[in-house]
Design goal:
Blueprint (H helix, E strand, L loop, with lengths): L25 E2 L2 E2 L19 E2 L7 E2 L3 E3 L5 E2 L1 H15 L4 E13 L7 E12 L7 E3 L2 E5 L1 H5 L2 E17 L2 E14 L3 E4 L31
Parallel strand pairs: 5-12, 6-11
Antiparallel strand pairs: 1-2, 3-4, 7-8, 8-9, 8-10, 10-13, 11-12
Length: about 220
């Protein structure tokens, strides 16, 4: 539990029988450790209690409760004005405020580009000239992890929790992610996919709407 919110990724023992452990994966921007199952990798020979899997699949090192903390925070109420200040500094026409998301996914295989995509559900265009924030539709966040992490300027002082399900080679497992709001100097976005098919102008032969019969139903005798 974090600030009164249940964390769906909590467990006492992983799926290989080892007690769950806290793992500081990244410290001050430097990779220090991995989430480990009983399958060793170079320089990391022991499990740290993160062997997880969907029933029937082989456990691998998986996330439980991801917690992001920051040493450079400001009040959450100040972030909006700091976003406006950054927009003015860069001479941009507007900035984007992502209020809520529904999830996302990453590509981690060596045969694919190392990239991520986040699926927002509530996005606002923030203007630097005092106009009210404007709702934006059809925007996804995309990018590569290293580039995105290097553009974090600071964070808010309030932590929010996201509970969901993570899918990977060992199946779907419940997870949570907690983090403060973040101010980015730059972020990549793209339009959401949508169908471009248009309905036909005319119905297919044999499916036309029958014309009304003023004398009565079809087949009626006088």
């Amino acid at each position: 539990m974090l600030d009164g919110v249940e964390l769906s990724g909590s467990y006492q023992y992983d799926d290989e029988g080892l007690p769950a452990q806290r793992v500081d994966v990244i410290q001050s921007g430097i990779l220090k450790d991995f989430l480990m199952s009983r399958m060793p990798i170079k320089n990391f020979a022991k499990s740290n209690g993160h062997g997880r899997a969907q029933p029937g699949l082989m456990p691998t090192g998986r996330q439980g409760n991801l917690m992001v903390t920051s040493s450079k925070t400001v009040k959450a109420s100040d972030l909006h004005q700091m976003l406006i200040d950054e927009v003015k500094k860069q001479g941009k026409p507007y900035g984007l405020y992502f209020e809520d998301i529904q999830g996302g996914f990453t590509l981690t295989q060596r045969t694919a580009p190392q990239a991520f995509q986040v699926l927002p559900v509530l996005v606002w265009r923030v203007y630097p000239d005092g106009r009210p924030d404007e709702l934006v539709r059809g925007v996804d966040i995309v990018g590569t992890p290293m580039a995105a992490l290097n553009r974090i300027m600071l964070t808010g002082d309030k932590t929010e929790v996201f509970n969901g399900v993570c899918g990977a080679d060992s199946g779907n497992v419940p997870v949570s992610a907690s983090a403060p709001a973040m101010l980015f100097s730059e972020i990549e976005v793209q339009k959401q996919a949508h169908l471009l098919d248009r309905p036909p102008v005319l119905p297919p032969p044999g499916f036309e709407t029958p014309a009304a019969n003023p004398q009565g139903k079809s087949g009626d005798r006088p």
